[in-house]
């Protein structure tokens, strides 16, 4: 009896007792990633695949009419001069012009906000204000500012003597320009955030060395600042172009839902009109898939040029 008690007390409890087959440790990574993968597949991949499948059909929005027609919807886009090709042209004009202005204003503002002056923190907060305003508020505010009868901009331009007669901003000839200016004011803080974050990491000794070499402000920007923020600007241009080329809410609320919609009917607006205005879901899906593929091709082309330029 004493020997049995002594033997029980000498049992090594440092190793856990076997409790069946354990899951290999590396499998826990897959288990933890599974919810995110399922979410991505359900919210991103499935809609893309379903949109492509619908684009192969002549499908009505509400009626149970769905006939398989293959690639006929895509072939019809090639002959759609007033719809597809015109929307592509207007979308390119809007995206390139607005992104260009956003870069000029955003980089200039970021460089200014990177300097030391009284009230810099407050100025940085004010610079981010347009990006935080809800889109519907932006549209209402800008339609009041650009009004050619009682708008603030009309008063300022005439009071300063820049123009004698009020500019009709909401006209077929000027509505695209107005939309570009509004989008620039709304989204330039995105450029400010990215550029300013990079500017704050540049070594001040680089500017000191450039000054010793006699470089002026423009040469310091071209030889010091621009190479340092180049990678950030690459990402900003890519994201801003994709965002502006697919922008829907601003264009639709600003002019797309009114009588000037035809003059700013970019591809996203035309896709909405074909799907919910003309009730042609198959044609609308073909437009959305084509828009998606164009952005993929643009991204690949853009990354290829950047990588090739990096190797030079």
Topology overview:
Elements lengths: L1 H8 L17 H29 L1 E3 L6 E3 L3 H7 L2 H33 L6 H8 L1 H4 L2 H11 L6 H8 L15 H25 L4 H9 L4 H29 L3 H8 L10 H11 L3 H31 L1
Antiparallel strand pairs: 1-2
Helix pairs in contact: 2-14, 4-9, 4-11, 4-13, 7-12, 9-11, 13-14
List its traits.
two-stranded antiparallel sheet; MetI-like fold; 312 residues; mainly alpha; 14 helices
Uncertain residue segments: none
Helix percent reads over 70%
* SS summary, helix count: 14
Fill in the CATH topology. Answer: MetI-like fold
Q: What is the architecture at the second tier of CATH? A: Orthogonal Bundle
Shape: globular
Strand content: under 5%
Would you count the extended β strands for me?
2
Helix-strand sequence: HHEEHHHHHHHHHHHH
Quick recap:
With 312 residues, this protein is mainly alpha-helical.
Overview of the structural elements:
The protein has a two-stranded antiparallel ribbon with strand order 1-2. Helix 4 runs parallel beside helix 9 (175-199), helix 9 packs across helix 11 and helix 13 (267-277) packs antiparallel against helix 14 (281-311). It has a single domain (72-311), classed as Orthogonal Bundle (MetI-like fold), CATH 1.10.3720.10. The radius of gyration is 29 Å and the shape is globular. It has helices at 2-9, 27-55, 72-78, 81-113, 120-127, 129-132, 135-145, 152-159, 175-199, 204-212, 217-245, 249-256, 267-277, 281-311; strands spanning 57-59, 66-68. The protein contains 14 helices and two strands, in the order ααββαααααααααααα. It has 312 residues and is mainly α. It is 71% helix and 2% strand.
